[in-house]
């Protein structure tokens, strides 16, 4: 299992969503391997769809790019048609998994409770969870951003506390829903404010947890805006959707983050 660095090495994660099956996913993996070969100051992860995981992991074997799933189930096995367990993801070559992405919360009934169970289950299996939080536009306009994000983060902190895993293995991704896939990026100050609040919330549980947990920003990150976001004190990397589907733009984001 990859250990997070005490100094919070930047982490850039590409979420391919429901794009790129095995064939085109492998082509993209080959390009990424070439484009990212010289980048060593940043940890790199890509999250292809389930069906492409094993092939992409095989293509990236021996490179510095690791593979994540986009979701997992919290049970180890059972009659859960259509679901995939953490152990199965490990067997497919994953070392990470996204958990509670807003598209899962919005369309597939993920809740704070199921996100907590998934974080616990991933940690128990030896898979590194990247747990997503973030507010809707309505919540931001109503001034409840921090209440919403605190509630989501508390469920993740509880899950970490209930697991016997060492601190720092869980990454949190702050993704304002109004910024995902919309081209509307949160400004660096807007993002930093929420990241600092998340880190303060982690510190209520443990100073060590708050110091070593990586908090990523996600929401319309592009090569043109990544450097100013990554310069913020509490932003430790990015979860990138659209711009991760092109090797050059993903590499440029990674280059601007190290
Ligand atoms: C995402 O899918 O998590 C995401 C942030 O998407 P985009 O970068 O396209 O906004």
Q: Characterize the quaternary organization of these chains.
A: single chain
Between the first and last Cα atoms, what is the distance in angstroms?
22 Å
Rg result: 17 Å
Low-confidence stretches: 1-5
Walk across the major sheet and give the strand order. 1-2-3-4-5-6-7-8
Secondary-structure element pattern, one letter each: EHEHEHEHHEHHEHHEHEH
Which superfamily, in CATH terms, is the homologous superfamily? Aldolase class I
Compose a concise summary of this entry.
The chain has eleven helices and eight strands.
Structure in words:
Helix 1 (22-35) packs parallel to helix 2 (53-60) and helix 1 (22-35) runs parallel beside helix 11. The protein has helices spanning 22-35, 53-60, 86-91, 102-107, 112-125, 137-141, 145-162, 188-205, 207-212, 223-230, 247-255, and strands at residues 11-15, 43-47, 65-69, 96-99, 128-133, 171-174, 215-218, 237-240. It has 258 residues and is α/β, with parallel strands linked by helices. The relative contact order is 0.16. Strand 7 (215-218), helix 10 and strand 8 form a beta-alpha-beta unit. It has one domain (11-255): TIM Barrel, CATH 3.20.20. The chain is globular, with a radius of gyration of 17 Å. An eight-stranded parallel β-barrel has the order 1-2-3-4-5-6-7-8, surrounded by six helices. Bound molecules: phosphoenolpyruvate. The site of phosphoenolpyruvate has 14 residues, from strand 8.
């Amino acid at each position: 299992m990859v250990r997070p660095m005490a100094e919070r090495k930047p982490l850039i994660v590409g979420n391919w969503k429901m794009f790129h099956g095995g064939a085109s996913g492998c082509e993209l993996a080959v390009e990424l391997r070439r484009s990212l070969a010289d980048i060593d100051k940043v940890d790199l992860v890509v999250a292809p769809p389930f069906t492409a995981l094993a092939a992409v992991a095989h293509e990236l074997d021996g490179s510095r790019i690791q593979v994540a799933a986009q979701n997992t189930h919290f049970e180890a096995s059972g009659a859960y048609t259509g679901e995939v367990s953490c152990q199965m993801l490990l067997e497919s070559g994953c070392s990470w998994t996204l958990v509670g992405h807003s598209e899962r919360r919005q369309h597939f009934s993920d809740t704070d409770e199921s996100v907590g169970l998934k974080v616990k289950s991933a940690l128990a299996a030896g898979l590194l969870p990247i747990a997503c939080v973030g507010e809707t536009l309505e919540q931001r306009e109503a001034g409840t951003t921090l209440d919403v994000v605190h509630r989501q983060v508390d469920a993740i902190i509880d899950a970490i506390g209930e697991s016997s895993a060492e601190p720092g293995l869980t990454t949190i991704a702050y993704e304002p829903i109004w910024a995902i896939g919309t081209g509307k990026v949160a400004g660096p100050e807007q993002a930093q404010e929420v990241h600092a609040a998340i880190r303060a919330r982690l510190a209520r549980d443990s100073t060590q947890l708050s110091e070593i947990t990586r908090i990523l920003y996600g929401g319309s990150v592009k090569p043109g805006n990544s450097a100013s976001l990554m310069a913020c004190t509490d932003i430790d990397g990015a979860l990138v959707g659209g711009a991760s589907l092109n090797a050059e733009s993903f590499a440029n984001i990674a280059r601007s983050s190290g």
